[in-house]
Amino acid sequence: MRNVPIGIDDFKELREKDGYFVDKTMLIEEIVKNNVTKVFLFTRPRRFGKSLNMSMIDAFFNLRYKGNKWFDGLHVMDRDDCEAVMNSYPVISIDLKGLNLDDMDTFLNTFAGKISRICAEHRYLLESDVDDVRISKFDDLRREKGTRADLEGSLKLLTDILKEYHKKDVIVLIDEYDNPIQNTYGSEMQQIGR
Asked: Any residues with CB less than 8 A from the CB of 162 and at least 6 apart, and which?
């Protein structure tokens, strides 16, 4: 009997530890079938497994995980059209939970840290033939030296560079996208953002 993974929202960890998993890979099948749709929004009540689903989507599409066995025995592997796109896209995954929202400077610093970690995952781009100006901005973000304007455009910059380098569309996963809005509602920080 498999253990029930309480508190694990990382698909890779759950599968490596052989934890109990309710197969939700039909979600991946739907994404692959709807290949003309550019944006998917997954809303569910709290504690309904959204983070685990995002982690599963990352594990399936992210080219960094090519050759993994995490999906063996799951529904999605019965679909040739799904298996053909498995681990074939550059993926940016960001979790907006845990951003410090006490004031704008602290928020920008914690957001810069999240962007820096994403850039570090893709540091191979520093050795690429991508435009020098964009690579310089990428390196500034990696070293947490970017300006506020750089941070505001950071996801666009990252997707543009990754698309140019890999010659493929980029998948962007944003978990807890509503967290900063929820946590600043009615606060002084909400007034600053106006």
From this structure: 90, 92, 122, 125, 170
> Minimal CA–CA distance to 125: which of 82, 93, 158?
158
Look-up of token digits 């991946």: 28
> Does 179 score more than 80 pLDDT?
no
36-43 long-range contacts, CB within 8 A, separation 24+: none
**87, 62 contact by CB (below 8 A):** yes
Give the whole-number percent of the chain exceeding pLDDT 70: 91
pLDDT tens digits, 88-135: 999 999 998 888 777 888 888 999 999 999 999 999 999 999 989 999
Measured distance CA(164)–CA(39) in Å, rounded: 20
Q: The tokens 């550059």 sit on which residue?
A: 90
Q: For tokens 């998948």, what's the residue?
A: 171
**Separation of CA 44 from chain center:** 18
Lookup result for tokens 């698309």: 163
Residue type, 26: M
Phi/psi of residue 91, nearest 5 degrees = -130, 135
Which residues does 147 contact at the CB level (< 8 Å), separation at least 6?
Answer: none
One-character DSSP codes across 111-134: HHHHHHHHHHHTGGGGGS-S-HHH
